[in-house]
Design goal:
Distance between the termini: 31 Å
Number of strands: 10
Strand content: 5-15%
Largest sheet: 5 strands, parallel
Radius of gyration: 20 Å
Oligomer: single chain
Helix content: 40-55%
Structural class: alpha/beta
Bound molecules: fructose -6-phosphate
Shape: globular
Strand order of the largest sheet: 2-1-3-4-5
């Protein structure tokens, strides 16, 4: 049941800290406290390339995964949505890895890519919530996210659990490929293990997100901006808003704003910024100043240091716990999903069963 929550989505949003925590438990050695994954069906040090494919939110998790695999493990990654990957038919290296990401393990497009890449000689690694699924049976290795059942059509906790597995994968590959020293590995692992507590803190400050929701609920169009590993979080935010509140939203890499979409900006188009204090923050800040100068209403998710710099730029700021830039996409996904939920509540839509959508898409 819903355990006293109004919707499964609300319940599942509150399960983010537990989903991340259980997933971490699965991938952490209890004695050494190091991230430890099951043996790979290949030598990670010699892996030439990885291909990632998935649909919807799982694809956005894959985009963050690419960022981590490339930056931490120096592994070249090709990525596309599953419905395009097969037909684009990118050339595959010998002994490459195909990484498929799916909550259900039954999504037709993703399963199609799995079979296509298996045929092309790739080793199949799947990140799945439902491990005993069709994709689970056909994979060489299943990395389970331990999110528990997800009933709400809109994906919530499975998304942060997917990201947690991908972060663990990137750290493991980095260790095996010798691209991260022990001190750095320990620091990033600590940031990851700390995440369930940081995530839980978000739920004691929901008022700021509700204030933001009142602005967003009045809009017809909303822009979401992100940069770097938080760009896919902007995409996730825009997808979730469209999906359950039926408000049109688009995500852009903040630097792309001036190459086109800035012409849309006026008082009626709120701009939601995913802006943790990372090395990209100052660039994001100047993009937001440009948007504000055109009358844009800036709604920002940031941390204490970012809030200080954004105070004259953003109309509303939700201050999130300070975390290492590595785990910021996982933490920031949570308030972004809560925002969509709060907007849907104000709009009075059928949150758990949005129109035209099914939980698992088993046709192409
Ligand atoms: C978004 C959402 C969908 C799914 C997509 C993939 O909230 O729920 O975009 O993420 O249909 O589904 P799985 O992960 O089951 O393959």
């Amino acid at each position: 049941g819903k355990d006293g929550y109004r919707h499964f989505m609300e319940k599942e949003l509150h399960e983010h800290p537990v989903a991340i925590g259980q997933t971490l438990q699965r991938v952490t050695d209890p004695v050494t406290r190091r991230i430890t994954l099951p043996d790979f069906p290949f030598n990670a040090a010699e892996l030439p390339r990885a291909t990632i494919s998935a649909c919807g939110s799982a694809y956005y998790a894959g985009l963050v995964g690419r960022y981590w695999l490339e930056s931490l493990a120096r592994l070249p990654v090709d990525i596309d949505v599953a419905s395009e990957m097969r037909y684009r038919a990118p050339p595959q290296p010998d002994q490459g890895m195909a990484l498929l990401i799916s909550q259900s393990g039954e999504t037709a497009d993703t399963l199609g890519v799995l079979r296509f890449l298996k045929e092309a000689g790739q080793k199949i690694v799947s990140v799945l919530n439902v491990e005993h699924s069709t994709m689970g049976r056909e994979s060489d290795l299943v990395l389970g996210m331990v999110a528990g059942p997800e009933i709400s059509v809109a994906s919530t906790k499975a998304f942060t659990a997917q990201l947690t597995v991908l972060a663990a994968l990137a750290l493991t590959f980095a260790r095996e490929r010798g691209t991260l020293d022990t001190a750095a590995e320990q620091e990033l692992t600590a940031a990851l293990l700390d995440l369930p507590s940081r995530a839980a803190e978000i739920f004691s400050h929901l008022e700021g997100i509700r204030d933001m929701a009142r602005v967003v609920a009045q809009a017809r169009d909303v822009l979401y901006l992100g940069r770097g590993s938080c760009m896919p979080i902007a995409q996730e935010g825009a997808l979730k808003l469209k999906e359950i509140s039926y408000i049109h939203a688009e995500a852009y890499a903040a630097g792309e704003l001036k190459h086109g979409p800035i012409s849309l900006i006026d008082q009626t188009v709120p701009v939601v910024a995913i802006a943790p204090s990372t090395i990209l923050f100052d660039k994001m800040l100047s993009n937001l100043q440009e948007a504000k100068a055109r009358g844009g209403r800036i709604l920002a998710f940031t941390d204490a240091a970012g809030a200080e710099k954004l105070k004259d730029v953003a109309e509303q700021i939700v201050v999130l716990p300070d975390v290492d830039a590595f785990v910021a996409p996982i933490l920031y996904a949570i308030p972004v999903q809560i925002l969509a939920y709060e907007v849907a509540l104000l709009k009075g839509t059928d949150v758990d069963q949005p129109r035209n959508l099914a939980k698992s898409v088993t046709v192409e």
